[in-house]
Every structure is written in C-alpha cells, then in structure tokens.
Design a protein that fits this description.
alpha/beta; 2 domains; 8-stranded mixed sheet; 3-stranded antiparallel sheet
Length: 473
C-alpha cells in the first residue's frame, strides 16, 4: 500500500485533465446551476409584485423545458406536415431537427440576470456613455397596459445599443423577449442576451422548418403574455433614415390570434435617437455583405474594444457620446383597430390578412417616425447639411439651430435641450462634432465643415430631417 507507482508524464496530464473535467461536471457545474436557479427564483418573487406587467410563468422555465414545449406543440407539429411530406419523411422523422432548432432559438429567461446583474450593467454602460433621456406622448396611457394583454414594444433600429436602451427603460414595467441577429452569437454575448430574454433569428434563412419553429416560439410566448420588443427594420439604417419595415414577427404574432379569445395584442411604439451611434462609421462604409464577411472575429474584437472603452468611460464618467433619448407613444390595440375597420380576422384569407397587417404595421412605423427624439447633434448636422457654405459664425449656427428646434417643438416632438437652453445645446453639439473632427474650430467662434466627414454629417442630419426640414441655403 505504501509503494510507489511511476507513470509517464503524458498519462499523468491526461488523468489530471479527466479528473478536473469530472469534478467540474459532477460537483461544480450542478452547484452553479442550483445557485443560479435559486437566485432566479428569489428575484422573480421579489420583483414580480412591483411590476406593471407581471412575469409570465414561462419566464421561469428552464431553456431545455421551453425548447421541448415548443418542439412538441401540436400546432407546430401540424404545421410542419407539408414540409415533411415534401421531403418524403414523416413528422416523427423531423422531430430531432425540430428539437435542435427549438433549442437554438428559445431564450434562457433569467429574472436574476435581467433585473439585477443585467440591469446594473445596462444602467452603468448607458449612463457612462450617454446622458439618457426619456419622453412620453401620454405617460398615463401606458398605465392602461395589463398582464392580461400581449404587449409588444415596437422600436426603430438606430444602433445595437437600442436593445440595451429599450430593455433598460422598460425594466421598471416588465421583462421583455426580443429577437437578436446572428452577429451576437459569440461568447459571452450570446449567453447574456439569452438570459435577458433574447432569441436569435437567422434573418435570411430560407429553411421553412426553421421559420415554422421560430413562429411557434413567438406565438407560445405571446399566448403566455410575455411582452416582446421588435425592431421591424431588421437592420441598421445606412443613411440615418427610417428603413422600410418587415413584418415577419408581426405576422407570426397575429397568425393564431382570435379576437376576444386570445390575449389582446397591444403595440407600443418607441423611437430612439442618439447624439452618437457607436457603429456609425461601420454602418455607412460597409454594406450588409461586407459586414457578414467580417465574421465572428470582428464581432469579438469590436466587443472587446467596446467593453474596454465602457470601463474607461465608467471610471472617467465622461459621457462622451452625448445624449440618448427614447420616446414612448400611445398603445395601439390590435383588437380595437380591427373593430374600427369592421374586419373579421378569423374569416379573412391570407391575402386580406397581409394587406391589413401591412396597413397596421406601416401605421405604427409612421408613429415611430413622428416620435423620433430631436437631440442636439442631429440638429446641428442638419444645419450644416442644408447649408451651401462650409464656413460658419457661431451666431449663424445659433439662429439656424433655433429655427429647427422651434419647428420640432411646433410638431410636438421630444426635443432634448440641456437646461432648456438652445445656445447650450448648440455648444454641446459643436463640441461633439469638433471632438470627432467633423467640424473644425477656426477660432474667434468660427467653424468649418470637414469635407471628408460630409457623409457622416448627412447620416445624422437625416435622422431628424422629416421633423425640421428647411430649404437649402
């Protein structure tokens, strides 16, 4: 028993690795999972009573259980029968693929991460970069939202910061489920997004089976009154203007909808705008194909740079990106909209439904266009973009700046003015543009446009052009 056994170093290394893996799988991993689950349950119990839109029991399901529920849903299995027949298979033959797709799609809801860790991260990241503002058309109208409804927050898509901004500003009311692009399926971004209620969408997938599973998850979550956040543009705007909307998720939400039986679908428009969009240079210089060709290394590298910069911004508390603002519109009941137009949803064919959904969805997008907040930098960029000259005195800029602010206020837009002072807002915007070399400070309160940055200036000007449009000159 006290003898010595000699083994090769390579065997010792292999055995050591096996031991570490076994200890992790059998002891550490289960302990982490139990602790994480306990924290999640505690957060659910503490937060839920104070939320306007109560958390659905669906948000407490484990990811595997939720995926199994979606994959075994009778409505889904019925809908994939034509796909199975087309492939010369039975639905049972497709079961493994359906389960794999369902697990790929569904989020890993975690109230502890969402309301504790995620909220802290979003709050500090946003407030380190931006001075965050919020506007309402009618705040009291949002108080009519209830847990008996299926609430959908519909937002424009200016930046990938939109996800963080919308979830942060709605976290006092509820927990959202939202679709995210494939770009974010890298460690650890994927895990954080899933824990925050995110599900991943293959934007251009032509696989009908994938689409059926995605559709059924959205419907299951909606029927359980899990609030959604959707971004109908589907991609970031390359010119700053609101892009044409795609209503795929809206179609999924409404396909199984039965007025008077299903929870009422209520859509709340949200419009976001920023003094500075982190991705602005990349967005205007690269088309969609080039972005995808960059691959995951680019995403990881960008994520690391963003994280390091966030830490620096938090330490320095610089808020160097200026203002970020979101404006909430009034809720739109889909049932009330159908009733107003005397449409019998359950009796309409697919063509009639598509026409109705397009009208309804475009109406929501028009509301969002009118709600877009007017922050100082886009206003100044609009002044510069609309002028024939490239050299300006400060007084010239101030006069044109005030004219545009007055136009926006006359339309009822949310206008961000520090201390309600147009001159202070102008100086803030000038400092932002000079720091980015979009504007040159020539001294004696005179400025000149950097011609190399004209496209970037137009990008920001376009975000508010429809609200403060002026004649050239």
């Amino acid at each position: 028993m006290g003898g010595t056994i000699e083994i090769p170093i390579w065997l010792f290394v292999v055995l050591s690795i096996g031991l570490v893996i076994s200890v992790y799988r059998l002891a550490i991993d289960p302990l982490i999972r139990r602790t994480w689950r306990r924290w999640s349950v505690r957060a659910f119990e503490e937060v839920n009573p104070n939320l306007q839109l109560k958390l659905s029991p669906l948000t407490m399901m484990r990811r595997r259980s939720l995926a199994d529920r979606v994959a075994s849903d009778p409505v889904l299995l019925k809908s994939v029968e034509p796909i199975a027949a087309e492939r010369g298979l039975t639905v049972s033959d497709l079961k493994a693929e359906i389960e794999r797709i369902a697990y790929e799609i569904v989020p890993a809801f975690n109230p502890f991460f969402y309301f504790r860790l995620g909220y802290w991260m979003a709050r500090h990241a946003l407030r380190s970069y931006y001075r965050v503002r919020i506007g309402f058309v009618d705040e009291k109208s949002l108080e009519s939202l209830s847990s008996d409804q299926s609430v959908v927050f519909v937002s424009n898509h200016r930046s990938n910061v939109d996800y963080m901004l919308v979830t942060y500003l709605t976290s006092q009311r509820t927990m959202l489920s939202f679709g995210a692009g494939e770009w974010s399926q890298v460690f650890p971004i994927e895990q954080m997004i899933r824990s925050a209620g995110g599900y991943f969408v293959r934007r251009d997938s032509g696989d009908p089976l994938y689409r059926r599973v995605l559709e059924r998850y959205v419907q299951v979550a909606s029927e359980a009154s899990v609030p959604h956040a959707i971004f109908p543009e589907g991609k970031l705007s390359v010119d700053g203007r609101l892009s044409p909307a795609k209503f795929g998720i809206l179609t999924y939400l409404s396909r199984q909808f039965v007025p008077g039986v299903s929870p009422d679908l209520v859509f709340v428009p949200i419009a976001c705008n920023y003094d500075r969009v982190p991705e602005d240079i990349n967005v205007i210089e690269h088309d969609t194909f080039q972005f995808r060709a960059m691959g995951r290394r680019y995403v990881i590298r960008s994520g690391v740079v963003f994280a390091l910069r966030t830490i620096w911004e938090m330490v320095a508390w610089r808020r160097s990106y200026g203002f970020a603002c979101a404006t909430f519109g009034c809720p739109n009941s889909f049932t009330a909209w159908l009733r107003q137009r005397r449409l019998e949803w359950t009796e309409m064919d697919s063509g009639a439904r598509y026409s109705a959904l397009s009208e309804f969805g475009n109406g929501i997008m028009d509301e969002i266009r009118d709600l877009i907040p007017v922050t100082p930098v886009p206003v100044l960029c609009h002044v510069l973009d609309a002028a024939d000259d490239s050299h300006f005195e400060e007084d010239q800029l101030l006069e044109a700046f005030r004219q545009r602010v007055d136009r926006a206020l006359a339309l009822g837009a949310t206008v961000v003015l520090p201390r309600n002072d147009a001159r202070l807002a102008l100086l803030h915007a000038v400092n932002q543009l000079c720091a980015r070399r979009m504007l040159h400070d020539e001294g004696k309160r005179a400025y000149a446009i950097n011609e190399e940055k004209k496209r970037l200036i137009s990008y920001y000007a376009n975000t508010v052009d429809h609200l403060i449009r002026a004649e050239k000159g």
